[in-house]
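Weekly modeling sync, notes
Attendees: S.R. (lead), two postdocs, one rotation student

Agenda item 3: backlog of single-chain predictions. S.R. asked that every request posted to the team notebook include the full sequence so nobody has to chase files. The rotation student volunteered to paste the first one in as an example of the format we agreed on. Action items at the bottom.

Example entry:
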Amino acid sequence: MTIRRASPADAEAILDAHIASILGVCAPDYSPEQISAWVSPKNAAQYIRAMTGGHLMWVAEDTGRVLGFVDLVGDMLEGLYLHPGAIGKGIGRRLLETAEQAARAAGYRRLELYSTLTSYRFYMHMGYEPLGPGDFRPGGVDVPCVHMRKFLR
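Predicted structure, as returned to the notebook:
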């Protein structure tokens, strides 16, 4: 398994990983209405726009298959999602550490993120502290999340 910078050519595979993660990992913590609102607007062009618009993205890849991705813009972690089969293998940790290292190298002293209810414990384990509830409303549907922060060393 390798971690590498994502390119626009990875957009479809990133989309697949993102949707698979929401449907297969996050679904137990959210209602069908919330999951549908979260997944419905997703498309590959969003990831291409993000990458060409200043987001730094990395993918975890194994034998040509994208297992997950992380998305960083400035001092904000915009997302970290894994295919369900990639959970619990240290891949999320490696993706997060890659983003943290890039943020440090860019001079940021902290990272913030909005964690899903599903990933909250993972981020706590990785040294993030909760700041309070987050505001995520795809399609006007409230999808609870937790605003979190970590000071980088």
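Discussion: group reviewed the output briefly. The chain has a mean pLDDT of 96.
Action items: rotation student to repeat for the remaining queue; S.R. to check formatting next week.
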